[in-house]
Amino acid sequence: MAIGKKSRKLKKLSECMSDILSLKVTEENDISFLTELGIAKNSTDNKMLIMARLFEKASKGDISAIKEIRGIMNDSENKDKGLVSEIIEAVKNVG
User: Fold this and answer.
1) CB-hemisphere CA count at 13 Å for 10?
2) Phi, psi (rounded to 5 degrees) for 73
3) Considering only CA atoms, which of 51, 49, 69 is closest in space to residue 61?
4) What angle is formed at CA 80 by the lines to CA 30 and CA 45, rounded to 5 degrees?
């Protein structure tokens, strides 16, 4: 496969995943999970769900989840902190 063709294919796949991640969560138990964490119902998209589930695993001691969050946080220091900061703040306010 030519490099240009492969690059276009990867870009298309990335766009597809981005579209899926931006969709609203529809499963009621996933929505409940997010709202119980204090996340506003209008923020319940698949990105938020994945990050919240990752946090859930980390909070139970899953070392790989903790490392992943640390990696995301380090990356976010160099980029927009919007989503990660919102999740962290929402989780801090659970009580």
Assistant:
1) 7
2) -65, -40
3) 69
4) 15
Total count of residues recorded for the chain? 95
| Type of residue at 84 | V
Q: In the 8-state DSSP scheme, what is residue 49? A: H
Contact 66, 58 (CB under 8 A): yes
- Report how far residue 91's alpha carbon sits from residue 89's, in angstroms, rounded to the nearest whole number: 5
DSSP one-letter string for 63-79: HHHHHHHHHHHHHHHTS
Compute the distance between CA of residue 42 and CA of residue 48 in angstroms, rounded to an integer: 11
Write the DSSP symbol of residue 45: B
pLDDT digits (tens, 9 = 90+) for 31-67: 999 999 999 988 899 999 999 999 999 999 999 999 8
**Confidence (pTM):** 0.69
What is the rounded distance in angstroms from the CA atom of residue 47 to the CA atom of residue 35?
Answer: 14
CA–CA separation, 14 and 51 (whole Å):
18
